């Protein structure tokens, strides 16, 4: 049993109670994914599984056998930043930076949701397959990712700027 983390195979733990977050941080030493509340309330541990965002603190690693996992380390590198990473830097979408990896992974997943036509609580027309991008949609969809520093305006600006580039 194994998962694919950022393009590399990773053996699943012997202990079926280990969370995906603990596997990434403790076994794989991928410290970008943060343990904030460890209760699914803050979003600091957000990663992508097959392109969809999940809270890794609430996921048992063994549930994801054979799945593609992407962490912040798998989105870009220092020499080749992901468009959302670049936009976060340009728009000061972080202060202390603790929530930033989860915010960025969540933003990537959120943009994919918009492209697939997944509605949110603020989507006007649930029958419309093409959901209009708006700051209201972004704020609603990112509401599960908390920033104690209050860098929300920079985060929203970064996502707004990069959505067209990421959606290509």
Automatic annotation (TrEMBL):
CDD domains: fer2. The keyword Mitochondrion does not apply. InterPro entries: 2Fe-2S-bd, 2Fe-2S-bd_dom_sf, 2Fe-2S_ferredoxin-like_sf, 2Fe-2S_ferredoxin-type, 2Fe2S_fd_BS, Aldehyde_Oxdr_Iron-Sulfur, Beta-grasp_dom_sf. Keywords: Iron, Metal-binding, Oxidoreductase. It comes from the Bacteria. Residues 1-75 form the 2Fe-2S ferredoxin-type domain. This is 2Fe-2S iron-sulfur cluster-binding protein. It comes from Sphingobium naphthae. The lineage of its organism: Bacteria, Pseudomonadati, Pseudomonadota, Alphaproteobacteria, Sphingomonadales.
């Amino acid at each position: 049993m194994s998962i694919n983390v950022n393009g590399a195979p990773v053996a699943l733990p012997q202990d079926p109670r280990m969370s995906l977050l603990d596997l990434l941080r403790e076994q794989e030493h991928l410290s970008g994914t943060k343990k904030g509340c460890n209760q699914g309330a803050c979003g600091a541990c957000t990663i992508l599984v097959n392109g969809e965002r999940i809270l890794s603190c609430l996921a048992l690693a063994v549930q994801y056998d054979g799945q593609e996992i992407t962490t912040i380390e798998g989105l870009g590198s220092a020499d080749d930043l992901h468009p959302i990473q670049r936009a976060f830097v340009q728009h000061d979408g972080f202060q202390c930076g603790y929530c930033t990896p989860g915010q960025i992974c969540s933003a990537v997943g959120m943009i994919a949701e918009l492209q697939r036509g997944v509605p949110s609580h603020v989507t006007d027309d649930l029958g419309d397959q093409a959901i209009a991008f708006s700051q209201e949609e972004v704020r609603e969809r990112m509401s599960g990712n908390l920033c104690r520093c209050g860098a929300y305006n920079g985060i929203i600006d970064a996502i707004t700027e990069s959505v067209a580039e990421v959606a290509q």
